[in-house]
């Protein structure tokens, strides 16, 4: 789009929303062995969203999902039945932008985080949502192939700043034909970013995404970042997260001011089948009037709620037990994708 002299805005997550997308687990996804355990987590997320805005559910069979959801306001639920590989809407979902004020949805390639997992069906979901008349008539569908990009790797302040991680965006099997400078220029071109803040450190054991930024550090408003802090020097994450913290201190807003930093506790160690899971409090979802925070049945849950309240004093902080969710190496933000006001058909 460079040279076309267009104004592109990638809105922040905290702007008013029309709906949130969930892609529902079913017996042909990796959730099959623990489906009865994870469905209640999706139901809890769905109930909180429906209280405040519309919910778009991509699913294999809406009658089964209705039985699981129970008594809710179905006037606020949009069902779209289609084949899916998995449930990670943050990464296969469309990404909302405004181009010269016109709403548009970017449909990037989703290839299972660098071809780690099958994603052929999930990669078609956004296209099929357009075909099924889900988006408002004025929303432009924009096919961004062959660029591979996942929503979990992007944090926008809505003013021209991108917060992201080098580990993910420069990883193999995504866009390795492009060097770092080329990727940054392409992101600026596509999204209208004025600056890209690259985190060089930080990871979570058990994370399949190559360190998506939404597991580590999150923009809460134009000048505030909440991030994972590890105080335990014996924890394998201590050194990298300390380096990340020091880099966050050096970052500046477009007005050349340091960010207000709010540290979130490092979640207590959670293991399953002998493997450490990527439990993180940074994987929260901002919705209309609230923030949905993943919790892990830990004393640290209340500490995380208290810290996040500093960033969102005007929103309700709602904890949702995501212990079942992290058994497939993601959390609450990973299974959701928000769409701003005006994007979903009324």
UniProtKB/TrEMBL annotation:
SUPFAM superfamilies: Pentein (SSF55909). This is Agmatine/peptidylarginine deiminase. It comes from the Bacteria. InterPro entries: Peptidyl-Arg-deiminase_porph. GO terms for biological process: putrescine biosynthetic process. Keywords: Hydrolase. The keyword Hydrolase applies. GO terms for molecular function: agmatine deiminase activity; protein-arginine deiminase activity. The keyword Hydrolase applies.
